């Protein structure tokens, strides 16, 4: 079924603040304290020079959590401006930080179990799967499950699965026949290290292993089999003709077309499949595993579609405004390849406004849930405030 389209009005300008991701990840690996990190700005300079849009420094409690993940905010959130104890964006980032270790451990365990038959293939899988990253998609699975009264144990196998699928899509996207990129997450892409043949197989193996993780590891004592089956069904839809594969095909078809032949509706179609599909799966799967109602799941889908589009707009803007070091992949490639992007069609400033409006609409979808939706609302802001 074709995903729905949206019409939007433009609101006040958004803000994307570039942050040196590699610097702060390096500091995190060294186990520096938040206080040590807060003494420098995103570029490693004295904090007195400021690192926020319009020269305004963020409250330290907000800044510390965000900098650990290499992101920044313009302070557009009312919670930040008015100095509340903790903004929703901070809550979301702290949730990411808190869950990242357990997600990484589960990912490591999953690929350890696949290493028996072919060591090189398993090594290639591990190379990309364990290469770092913010783990936004698996964290969204856990957050949505929590929102509807579930626990991590119910959702962790699906969280692992969604990161496997995401990693597969990155490996395949980077291939010469697709986006032809040499760098991902700050190091050579999979095919540059293991060759195209092994990279393709590593992606294929991760995709098939994702289904096994859900089917074999979801605890039947906590999740009725009917829910697990529904999650598996949705994952199949997410990656195939109604999801990632279709979106990538549409994206390739649009590449090189003159800007006046690409409409906003066309871009929405491409990225509701290519980008929003996996975010939509992450959020709805977490809700399903916890036993959310049909109406709740519909609401989660609508929310995810909007933040999925906003996520892609942010990516397109960052391709124009950020550096290769900041992104961890080659900056400016979309422009060079004449890909169908939001800045190319709307312009840079209108793209930022468009992303802000999408997030505003997405938040409206969750208004009825009140504080229960706090984490997901924070993720919505984080998606357009991130720097990579």
TrEMBL record:
Keywords in alphabetical order: Isoprene biosynthesis, Magnesium, Metal-binding, Transferase
A UniProt-annotated Pfam family: polyprenyl_synt
GO function terms (MF aspect): metal ion binding; prenyltransferase activity
Listed GO biological process terms: isoprenoid biosynthetic process
Cellular component, GO annotation: cytoplasm
Listed cofactors: Mg(2+)
Nucleus is among the record's keywords: no
UniProt keyword annotation of tRNA-binding present: no
Cross-referenced InterPro entries: Isoprenoid_synthase_dom_sf (IPR008949), Polyprenyl_synt (IPR000092), Polyprenyl_synt_CS (IPR033749), Prenyl_diphosphate_synthase (IPR053378)
PROSITE patterns: POLYPRENYL_SYNTHASE_1, POLYPRENYL_SYNTHASE_2
Top-level taxonomic group: Eukaryota
Protein family membership: Belongs to the FPP/GGPP synthase family.
PANTHER family: FARNESYL DIPHOSPHATE SYNTHASE
Protein name: Geranylgeranyl diphosphate synthase, chloroplast
Natural source organism: Cyanidioschyzon merolae (strain NIES-3377 / 10D)
């Amino acid at each position: 079924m074709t995903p729905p389209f949206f019409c939007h009005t433009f609101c006040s300008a958004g803000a994307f603040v570039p942050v040196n991701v590699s610097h702060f990840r390096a500091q995190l690996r060294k186990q520096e304290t938040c206080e040590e990190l807060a003494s420098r700005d995103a570029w490693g300079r004295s904090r007195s020079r400021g690192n926020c849009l319009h020269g305004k420094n963020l409250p330290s409690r907000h800044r510390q959590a965000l900098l650990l993940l290499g992101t920044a905010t313009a302070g557009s959130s009312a919670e930040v401006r008015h100095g509340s104890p903790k903004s929703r964006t901070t809550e979301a980032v702290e949730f990411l930080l808190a869950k990242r270790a357990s997600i990484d451990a589960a990912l490591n365990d999953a690929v350890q179990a696949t290493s028996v038959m072919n060591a090189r293939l398993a090594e290639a899988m591990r190379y990309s799967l364990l290469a770092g990253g913010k783990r936004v998609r698996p964290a969204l699975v856990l957050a949505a499950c929590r929102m509807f009264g579930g626990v991590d144990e119910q959702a962790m196998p699906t969280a692992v699965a969604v990161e496997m699928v995401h990693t597969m899509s990155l490996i395949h996207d980077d291939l010469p026949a697709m986006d032809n990129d040499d760098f991902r997450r700050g190091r050579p892409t999979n095919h540059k290290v293991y060759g195209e043949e092994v990279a393709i197989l590593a992606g294929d193996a991760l995709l098939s292993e994702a289904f096994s993780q859900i089917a074999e590891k979801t605890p039947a004592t906590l999740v009725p089999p009917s829910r697990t089956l529904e999650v598996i069904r949705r994952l199949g839809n997410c990656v195939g003709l109604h999801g990632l594969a279709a979106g990538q095909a549409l994206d390739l078809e649009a590449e090189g077309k003159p800007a006046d032949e690409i409409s906003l509706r066309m871009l929405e179609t491409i990225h509701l499949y290519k980008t929003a599909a996996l975010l939509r799966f992450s959020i709805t799967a977490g809700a399903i595993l916890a036993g959310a109602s049909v109406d709740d799941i519909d609401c989660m889908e609508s929310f995810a579609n909007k933040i999925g589009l906003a996520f892609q707009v942010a990516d397109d803007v960052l391709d124009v405004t950020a550096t290769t070091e900041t992104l961890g992949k080659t900056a400016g490639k979309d422009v060079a390849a004449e890909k169908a992007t939001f800045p190319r069609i709307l312009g840079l400033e209108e793209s930022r406004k468009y992303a802000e409006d999408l997030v505003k609409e997405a938040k409206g979808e969750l208004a009825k849930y009140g504080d229960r939706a706090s984490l997901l609302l924070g993720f919505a802001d984080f998606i357009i405030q991130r720097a990579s």
